[in-house]
Structures are given as structure tokens and as C-alpha cells.
Amino acid sequence: MTYTPPDAPMLDAMLSAIKYDASGLIAAIAQQHDTGEVLMIAWMNADALRETLQTGRVCYYSRSRQKLWRKGETSGQIQHLKEARLDCDADAVLLLVNQIGVACHTGRRSCFYRAFTPTGLVELMKPEIDPAQLYHTHG
């Protein structure tokens, strides 16, 4: 499955259906396209969603930095879009992606690495890479 971007008029028409929250954001869930593994949730504004749908490289909106965040721009852990889906209420998107490397800033494949159990939170997976290596902060 190769992603093909829509033409500009079609993209504008599709984006007009989005229901952003009061901050101008929409929840975006990233899922590995071939395994179904849920990788992460982040936020997109109109510019991030437009860029993602135009380029096929996933771009989010960083609430803490108040700017666009192109997944992998500092870590190299890029997400290539395979398909984007809008939920029934038009207030969340599902991004089927090909994740290069790990998705989580903790060095794990998925941000959803802890399970609620009767005895507390249980870690389901260990980091695959040291976060200091991901973000070049070691040393």
C-alpha cells in the first residue's frame, strides 16, 4: 500500500469536515499499518494534518513547544503515512503508518507499554534504544 496524496481541491474539501477542539486540535492515533499495533497518540492542528496528507510524512502539533513537530526530525524515528481515517464524529484521526524505529520518546516501540493490573502497572516492553541515543543527549 503506497500513499497517494489528494489534489488540492479534494484536500480542502476533506479538511473542511474536521471538528477541531477549542484549541484548534484533533487527536491523532498512530497505528502500524501491517500489524495493527497502536504506537502513540498525539495532536494535530489544521497545518499538521494538511502537511501529513500532502507529503505522506506524519507531522503533529507540539502543544508544549507550540509548533509543528515532524515525527523523527530529531530522533530519526520517522512515520510514513499509508492511510488516514476520520472517525464518525470527525474529531479524531487514525493514521496507519510505517514506523521507522521506535515511536515512543522512552525508546520503546509503542507509547502504550504499561498495563493496568490488579497488582499495579506492569511494564510490557523494555526500551529498544536509550532515549539519550535517540535525542543525542548522552555524554
TrEMBL record:
Localization per Swiss-Prot or TrEMBL: Cytoplasm
Pfam families, per database record: PRA-CH
GO biological process: L-histidine biosynthetic process
Entry keyword set: Amino-acid biosynthesis, Cytoplasm, Histidine biosynthesis, Hydrolase, Magnesium, Metal-binding, Zinc
Keyword Nucleotide-binding: no
Main location: cytoplasm
Catalytic activity: 1-(5-phospho-beta-D-ribosyl)-5'-AMP + H2O = 1-(5-phospho-beta-D-ribosyl)-5-[(5-phospho-beta-D-ribosylamino)methylideneamino]imidazole-4-carboxamide; 1-(5-phospho-beta-D-ribosyl)-ATP + H2O = 1-(5-phospho-beta-D-ribosyl)-5'-AMP + diphosphate + H(+)
Keyword presence, Magnesium: yes
Cofactors demanded by this protein: Mg(2+); Zn(2+)
Protein purpose: Catalyzes the hydrolysis of the adenine ring of phosphoribosyl-AMP.
Subunit structure: Homodimer.
Protein family: In the C-terminal section; belongs to the PRA-PH family.
Protein name: Phosphoribosyl-AMP cyclohydrolase
Organism: Acetobacter syzygii
Lineage of the organism: Bacteria, Pseudomonadati, Pseudomonadota, Alphaproteobacteria, Acetobacterales
Gene: hisI
